[in-house]
Amino acid sequence: MKKYFILIGCCFSFFTCFSQQKNFTRQDTLRGSITPEREWWDLTYYHLDIEVNPDQKTIVGKNTVHYKVLNPNLVMQIDLQPPLQITKVVQRGKELPVTSEINAHFITLPDTPKLNALDSITVFYEGKPREAVRAPWDGGISWTKDKNGKAFVASSCQGLGASVWWPNKDHMYDEVDSMLISVKVPKGFMNVSNGRLRKTEKHKDGKTTFHWFVSNPINNYGVNINVGDYVHFGEKYQGEKGVLDMDYYVLSYNKAKAKKQFKDAPKMMEAFEHWFGPYPFYEDSFKLVEAPYLGMEHQSSVTYGNRYTNGYLGTDLSGTGWGLKFDFIIIHESGHEWFANNITYKDAADMWVHEGFTAYSENLFLDYYYGKEASAAYVIGTRKKILNDKPMIGPYGVNQEGSGDMYYKGANVLHTLRQMINDDEKWRAILRGLNTTFYHKTVTSEEIENYIIKESGLSLKPFFDQYLRTTDIPVLSYKKEKDHIQYKFTSVVPGFTIPVKIIIDGKELWITPTADWQSLLVRATEFKVDPGFYIEVEEVGL
Question: What angle do CA 123, 128, 133 make, to 5 degrees?
Answer without folding.
Answer: 125
